[in-house]
Amino acid sequence: MKLYPSLLLFFVTYISWSQVLHSKDAIMDKQAKNAIRKAEKYIDSLQAKQDIPGISICIGNRERILWAQGFGYADLENVIGVTTKSRFRIGSVSKALTSLAMAKLFQQGKLDLDVSIQRYTTVFPEKKYPVTARQLATHTAGIRHYRATDPINCPKRYEKVTDGLVIFKDDSLLFKPGTGYSYSSYGYNLLSVVIEGASKTDFITYMMQEVFTPLGLKSTMADYSDSIVANRVRFYEHSDKKLINAPMVDNSYKWAGGGFLSTPSDLVTMATKVLNGQFLDKKTVDMVFTSQKLLDGKDTQYGMGWRMGTDSKGRHVIHHGGVVEGGRTFVLLYPDQGIYLAITANMSGVSINLKEGEAIASYFLE
To answer: Which pick of 112, 200, 279, 307 has the fewest CB atoms within 10 Å?
Structure first.
């Protein structure tokens, strides 16, 4: 068989390039395995130090999930281990999901973020100053947060998101909207009512149909206390240095602000698709992830459902944590490096914050 010089050059080039690709893949696989081993040791140590029943973690980049794994127990009594499909309470990370619903309606021209919310709902009484959806999403509306006397630590079901407003709707604003920053889960509860008014769909249905399903979040849903939910973990806390079951709660009063179940894999998938522009256009994504300023120009270090900041090495990070009865969740995004992390635990009082998230992410950033 006679090979022409140009054809011969093609085969030689192809074979050489293939070897380079395979060599590069092998190096990347080795680096990934090394990072995973380090991360596993760190999580084992974290779990043992804090006596956490179960932890689940996921790390991804711009293209795919790099690693997802469960540690410990989803259910201690029945000796059921945590898997990547185990559903955890994500607490205030629910705000990040709710902000995407708001952003989608804004992008579609169905929600004006800068008009009084009374355009979209009449069930919340007018205050001294008008309140906008943008202010609710950025915690600058002056809506209060929890009080010790709030009727929330009991298994009471609020059938509609509007019903939950009774807890705080008659209270005065903390300040003139736009002049201060005060973190408020109730502000997000009110935002869910605005989303209902703008979409003309009940909040949970809208989240399922227009946010979770399009993003491919198969394990994310409302934490219904009266329903059988596959793969939902049991929830724990410590008392006198012993693990006990966390108190029974019904999170229907705060679906938008802290009432969803999810998995780290779903949360990383969400972050990847949003930052890749697969859910919202670039302009809207930038709006969600831009730190807001008060009327006096002060930076709040909070966008829409996400905190903005830097890690110990000065790298730009986007993050949010969730604290809830029987659960802790932390999501950490490195948008410039394209590394995204989510970690969940099924115990109250767990310390997993930016420090711990950065430590785990650093193995993959290397």
So the answer is: 200
Cα distances from 77 to residues 81, 195, 240, 244, 261, in angstroms, run 11, 40, 19, 11, 21
CA–CA distances in Å: residue 23 to residues 16, 30, 63, 136, 175: 11, 11, 20, 51, 60
* Residue 16: predicted pLDDT: 36
Pairing of strands 65-75, 327-334: unpaired
Say how far apart CA 281 and CA 292 lie, in whole Å: 19
Q: How many beta carbons lie within 10 A of that of residue 309, not counting itself?
A: 13
As a dihedral over the C-alpha atoms of residue 254, residue 258, residue 260, residue 261, rounded to 10 degrees, the angle is -140
Measured distance CA(38)–CA(33) in Å, rounded: 9
Q: What is the DSSP string of 282-351?
A: HHHHHHHTS--B-TTS-B-SB-SS-EEEE-TT--EEEEEEEEETTEEEEEEEETTTTEEEEEEESBTT--
Query: What CA–CA distance (Å, rounded) separates 284 from 273?
Result: 13
Domains and CATH numbers, the chain: 51-365 (3.40.710.10)
Task: List the one residue out of 191, 200, 104 whose CA is nearest residue 141.
Answer: 191
At residue 26, the pLDDT reads 61
Give the three-class secondary structure for 89.
Answer: strand
Q: Rounded to an integer, what distance in angstroms lies between the CA atom of residue 229 and that of residue 222?
A: 10
**Residue bearing tokens 């009940």:** 202
Ranges in the chain, pLDDT < 50: 1-24
Residues 6 or more apart whose Cβ sits within 8 Å of residue 314: none
The pTM of this model reads 0.92
- Please state, as a whole number, how many other Cβ atoms lie within 10 Å of the Cβ of residue 159: 8
- CA 342 – CA 271 distance, rounded (Å): 10
